[in-house]
Amino acid sequence: MASSPTDAAVALTRLGLGARPGEIDRVAADPRGWAMGQIRPQGAPQPSGQFADTAERVAQYIDYQSDAGLARRDRRAAAPATADAAPVPAPAPAPAPGMPDAADPQAVARREARQAARRDITQDTAQEFLARAQLGATTDDGFAERWALFWSNALTVSAAKFASGAFVGQYEREAVRPHVFGRFEDLVLAAEQHPAMLLYLDQARSVGPDSMADARRNAGLNENLAREMMELHTVGADGGYTQGDVTELARALTGWSIPAARDQRQPNRPRRARNMAAQAEPGPDGFVFRANVHEPGARTVMGKTYPAAGLAQGQAILRDLARHPATARRLSRRLAAHFVADDPPPALVARLEAAWTGSGGDLAQVARALVDAPETWTPQPAKIKTPYDFIVSAHRALGSRPQRVQPLRQALLDMGQPPFAPPSPEGWPDTAADWAGPDALVKRLNWSRTAADLAQASDPNAVAAAALGPRLGERTRLAVARAESRPEALTLLFMSPEFQRR
Questions:
Q1: Angstrom distance (rounded) from CA 278 to CA 292
Q2: CA 394-456-142 angle, 5° bins
Q3: Within a 13 Å sphere around the CA of 381, how many CA atoms are in the beta-carbon half?
Q4: Closest of 496, 384, 387, 386 to residue 447, by C-alpha
Q5: How many CB atoms lie within 10 A of CB 286?
Q6: The pTM is what?
């Protein structure tokens, strides 16, 4: 295939995360081959660093919950007497409302341990986000990385909720990245059964109305996971399901949960507690199926009846939803809209859908169809970068990487995309209308000035040429060349239409 610097620039900015110095020249020999070579059975690359895996984080989370339970007990013990209690002599000065008595060193120690556990988990998650951004800024596999980020957002969880945020790094590393070039049904099953998803959508506390547990706890059915599983993760709102289907799926999913302290078998526990623990069936990556909270009976979802089968019942329904033609159609369009244009070419959507249905949901085949499609290689950029994309691509252009988590976190907060914290189960929005408002552009300008002031690059003209290649327009080239200072030149580059779009 003939060398094509234009296709290389398109590949690195549209399919990838931006070009690093010299990368357009390296990729120009075979831009399609550059992308195809990243479609590997082992999935997307992993951020580097020593981080807790899901099993270790489950243990930490159980300890945190145990400390939290003891802290609540301490607060109840420290609460003032009710108004109709018998009069008593004036007491000594009381602790602040909701705080354990400072004279009780065990209560104070428990409170401090809980605060430390929460702080450790939060800081570890922040470091995982920094490692992910550093991977994005330095990886040779920009297409695989963007592909993984797409699926992490399509099957989103959020650190805006501490419980799910405690597992968000593990979720992306263990449930998403290894499966992004495998079968979609395997990816979505790993995602739905991960603690991050089960806690984010409150599935861990859903109890079958006719289960053994509900007679004791009166906890109730929670439909959040079932609804988002159908509306956002598979067939979509126009996929032909009804509210009755959501309820039936929610009943089938009862019992999907995460480990708890009570699951740890101890010889001196009461017989009833041991029996309840025995009904917790462990699965992969911190998943537990609790037979005693599962709703018994057959379920009918979208016209198909699934016999009572415990854990296997919900899994069978989810796999059928993953294979449904409406799922292929909806997610093919979403892929085309993410990679190519907010209003994607119908021909591209059709190509992706054909690859999806023809391969039985093999995401490697769908990725190859995207790379092969002529619509992918149109030179005119049509997508605005998200704040995360923008920051990562600027670091790539400079040949640098984010060094500290706090400035990165603050920049993303300012631009409206806080780390690991999409605002809803729909994930981060993906259109120009969502990211190109006047205030958003001012925030990008402010960050660009700061980044330009700190940059070590000696020649802004070389940075511009290496980052954009043939996509660098004459107007932007002249603006960078005529700038009065190096920081001003880099700021003009980062805020140029060519750099802001991909």
A1: 10
A2: 30
A3: 26
A4: 387
A5: 27
A6: 0.90
